Amino acid sequence: MSRKYVCYKSGYDLYAIIRHEVNFKAWDGSVYVSYDVADWLDYIIPLTDEGGDIYSFEFEDSGLAIIYEQGSIPAYSDSIVSQLSLSDTTYIKYPAVSYESGHDVHCFIRRESDLKVWNGSEYVDFVLADIDDYKYDLTDVGGDLYSTTTMPTVGDFVVIYYDNELLLGISKVRYTGSITLNSDYSIDDADEFFNNRLTNTYWSNASDDDKIKALNMAIRAINQLNFDEDLIDDDYDSIVFEAACLIAVKYLEGYEVDQIRENQTVVSQTYSNVKEIKNNVALDYYSAGIVSAEAWDLLIPYFKNSTQVRLNKVT
Fold this sequence. Notes:
The chain has 315 residues and is of the alpha+beta class. The protein has 3 domains: 3-85, no CATH class; 96-175, no CATH class; 187-302, no CATH class. It contains 8 helices and 20 strands. The protein has a 4-stranded antiparallel β-sheet with strand order 5-2-8-9, with no helix packed on it. It has a 4-stranded antiparallel β-sheet with strand order 14-11-17-18, with no helix packed on it. Strand 19 and strand 20 form a beta hairpin. Helix 4 (208-223) packs across helix 5 and helix 5 packs antiparallel against helix 8.
């Protein structure tokens, strides 16, 4: 089942009635049937008050949910408080809410998997007495929009927006993180890069957290290289990002520069009068701290002319 969310002040009894989006039949708990007000009680789906002005209910199919505030018992005369399309599963990338400029707007960040709330250091069960600990400030970016481009962690979230105690709205946020190479690039761009490659198993099987770690490791490795600023062109950012992706997936495969360097040996063996020398030297890109030959080839055109260094371990 898929969990759906409604933003409304906590402390009320809410329920949903689901109507088909095409023929407007009502959901009776198992199938859509012709709507009849006499069967009102057959249609209700109680909502769970999750605290912090979030209500939830489970429903797998598409449809239009009409949300009611219950009186003493559910009845046709109950007030409608909201409605939402159940076919809309859109996540936005960052928290954002439209509201007139000049206010102090904040949000609560609730992890979708368990609805625990971020308190500044970890996700915890919502406790009303600790509500001030949950405030996550948003920036007035102009044009009656408040937002932030940072989140505590990657993942899927339910975000509730406030102006002081005034409830403004709710949205679902899927934050995949961002990398430090260039603000124009993100995990989404890396996913697109690997989607266009024949083999991307190690990347596609990795978690977003591991992808971010691997990309940041790759970026740090690239930043140690000796680039010639005079060679930087319009393609530089995209080329370096592709190289970072290629290095990152090598990390996800388990490649480690230090281990490879440690394994570089020169071995001398003599059999009868024949001397055999096995010279296993570190390749240029390993010596430079890069674990991908393909990435190295992309980066070479931007290097300053310098003497190549090989690191060999002799035993």
